[in-house]
């Protein structure tokens, strides 16, 4: 049985073209895993850090002539039961929050997109310790 844990560490703002490469990498990785046999299944973990926290903003608007990267990540998460952890500190400093942090920090509402979750850096440390391969965008 061969398993490979890959961590996709995304740190670029979703407005950057490289952010689309990260999404396409994840999508191709997951599609490849779905088509391979169970005994050799690889695992993909994702972590949004720094400017990439903006990807989890449900209020991010996109013109009609372009696909919405936030919505695409949410769909990918649902299709593949994929966690989308976002660094809580970098998200909060960019005005992105979930319901719990909004209450804790007395903020008016939440705007974290479906499928995304705010987590501490301990999660990144754990993912890094388990990863056999780290790919950054």
Output the number of helix runs. 5
- The coarse overall form would be globular
Amount of helix: 25-40%
Order of helices and strands: EHEHEHHEHE
Biggest beta sheet attributes? 3 strands, parallel
The radius of gyration is 15 Å
Let me know the number of strands. 5
Parts with pLDDT < 50 across at least 5 consecutive residues: none
Quick description:
The chain has five helices and five strands.
Can you walk through the features of this model?
The chain has 137 residues and is of the alpha/beta class. The chain is built from five helices and five strands. The strands form two sheets. Strands 2-1-5 form a three-stranded parallel sheet, sandwiched between helices. Strand 1, helix 1 and strand 2 form a beta-alpha-beta unit. Helix 1 packs parallel to helix 2.
Question: What are the main properties of this structure?
Answer:
39% helix, 3-stranded parallel sheet, alpha/beta, two-stranded parallel ribbon, 137 residues
Give the topology.
Blueprint: E1 5-10, H1 17-35, E2 43-48, H2 69-80, E3 84-87, H3 88-93, H4 99-104, E4 116-119, H5 121-130, E5 133-136
Parallel strand pairs: 1-2, 1-5, 3-4
């Amino acid at each position: 049985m061969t398993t490979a844990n890959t961590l996709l560490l995304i740190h670029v703002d979703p407005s950057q073209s490289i952010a689309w490469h990260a999404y396409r990498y994840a999508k191709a990785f997951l599609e490849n895993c779905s088509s391979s046999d169970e005994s050799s299944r690889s695992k993909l973990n994702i972590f949004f850090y720094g400017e990439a926290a903006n990807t989890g903003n449900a209020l991010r608007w996109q013109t009609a002539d372009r696909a919405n990267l936030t919505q695409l990540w949410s769909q990918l998460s649902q299709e593949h039961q994929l966690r989308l952890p976002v660094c809580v500190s970098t998200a909060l400093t960019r005005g992105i929050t979930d319901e719990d942090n909004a209450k804790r920090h007395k903020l008016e509402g939440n705007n974290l997109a479906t499928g995304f979750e705010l987590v501490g850096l301990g999660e990144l440390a754990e993912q890094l310790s388990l990863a056999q391969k780290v790919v950054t965008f």
